[in-house]
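Molecular record:
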Amino acid sequence: MALPLAILVLGVHLMTKNRIATGPRTEIGKMRSSQNAIKFGIFSRATLLKDESRTEYDSLCQGLWKSKPPGDEFEEILLDKIASNLWRQRRVLIAEHAEIRRNGEFVEFDQRQKQLEDAEEVSQKLYEQTDPTLVPEPVGLMWSIANPEALERSIEILVELQQQIKADGFGGESDKWRLKSIYGDPSVAHLRPTLQDVYFTWFDSTKVTEEERAQAGHPTPEQCKKIVLREVGVEIRRLEQYREKREPIESERRKVEILRQRVPDSPGLDRLLRYGNNLEREFYRLLAQYEHAQQTRKRQPLPPRSDVNTS
């Protein structure tokens, strides 16, 4: 008696469900299966940094799988380790380039800033020698504008000074405090005249009598105020231009620093190269281990064992 069609279908379903998987049998299926290690390799997860390209790493793995296809899980693990090693060698080359850039770029900019700071320090020392009984106060924010915080604060104080003068004229104690916080002690001679010097020059001009003003042709107090406001504006623009010039340099410097820090514990180029040499020796050891595993699996004669752990 023929079985009902529904029972036959159910039996086929159960047989299919309970069948033990034997894996791919064709060469194409085996090759496709071997690609699974590219997605799930334990070493690839540890190797890639947050900003590194998964696509580029997968391309490296695919090239390895194509040129040296693995035949079993052990060979897949070894090939995954080889891919991780090659990726770290690539990172060494990038870090080496960054180390070279770090030592070679920004030299002119840094040297110019160092010269200005050294020159200002010399002028302060000269002042101390002329009057050793007087201890100068701190030189002010202006002489540390390589520090972004000092630069920003200097601009902020100058804008406050500009607004104060526009509203109430100039000559108040708040003006003097603001200038002193930027340029330091007004009695200290600097290498070049500063806005602080200009300010007091025109402030003194407002104190002359009308007779002296008429005889010497001094500007009126209102004209002195306009001159000082103009000079304050010039100083603000100068610092803003300095900031604009420095920002891309600092941005590039940060990028270089990030790249060179990608090799662990490698403060200099010599240690960087030693790290690269260690990776290269590890690569040849893994490659020899991989080829040995393949020959063993294929029952091919093994070549004489060679030691790749040379110093």
In short: Confidence is low (pLDDT under 50) at residues 1-21. The chain has two domains: 37-104+264-311, 135-260. The radius of gyration is 37 Å. The chain is about 70% helix and 0% strand.
